Task: inverse folding
C-alpha cells in the first residue's frame, strides 16, 4: 500500500494502489519470430490475439539510449484472459524487426503505421508502405529527432 500521504483521505482522494496486470518481457529482434510462434501455438500460453504494435522513442539521457528506440507488442489470450507485453529494442540507424503479419493479421496495418511514423522497417511484411502520410513525406514524424519544416499552412 502507498503511504497515506499518497493515497487516502489526507491526499484528497480514495483509491487502490495501481497494479499492472501485464507481464513484461524484452526480446532481441532476431528472436522475435520464434518467441511469437511459441506464444501463439503453445496450448498452455494461448496468446491468440495481437492487441497492438507500436513504437516508443523515449527521451534519452545516455549515448546508448539515444541510439535506440523500442517496438512494443501486446498479446492477449482470449481463453485464459492474460496479457503479455514484449519490448524489442532497435537501433535508431536502420531500425528493423521481423514482421509478425504472417502469424497475426492484426499486425499488418499496425506495422505499417509504426513504419510510417517512426521509420522502423518490418522485414517480411507483405505490403510495407506508408499508411497515414503521403509517399513523399520527408522523415518520420513521431521520432524525437524529426525536424518539422514549416510550410505555408503553419501559423
Result:
Amino acid at each position: 500500500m502507498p503511504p497515506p500521504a499518497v493515497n487516502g483521505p489526507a491526499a484528497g482522494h480514495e483509491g487502490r494502489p495501481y497494479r499492472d496486470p501485464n507481464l513484461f518481457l524484452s526480446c532481441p529482434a532476431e528472436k522475435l519470430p520464434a518467441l511469437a510462434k511459441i506464444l501463439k501455438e503453445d496450448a498452455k500460453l494461448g496468446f491468440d490475439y495481437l492487441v497492438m504494435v507500436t513504437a516508443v522513442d523515449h527521451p534519452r539521457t545516455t549515448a546508448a539510449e539515444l541510439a535506440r528506440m523500442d517496438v512494443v507488442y501486446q498479446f492477449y489470450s482470449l481463453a485464459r484472459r492474460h496479457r503479455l507485453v514484449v519490448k524489442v529494442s532497435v537501433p535508431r540507424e536502420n531500425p528493423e524487426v521481423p514482421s509478425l503479419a504472417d502469424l497475426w493479421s492484426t499486425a499488418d496495418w499496425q506495422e505499417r503505421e509504426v513504419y510510417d511514423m517512426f521509420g522502423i522497417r518490418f522485414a517480411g511484411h507483405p505490403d510495407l508502405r506508408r499508411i497515414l502520410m503521403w509517399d513523399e513525406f520527408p522523415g518520420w514524424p513521431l521520432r524525437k529527432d524529426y525536424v518539422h519544416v514549416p510550410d505555408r499552412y503553419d501559423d
Notes: Strands lie at 23-26, 49-56, 68-77, 82-91, 96-98, 121-123. The first helix runs from residue 32 to 41. The domain at 20-123 is CATH 3.30.460.80 (Beta Polymerase; domain 2).
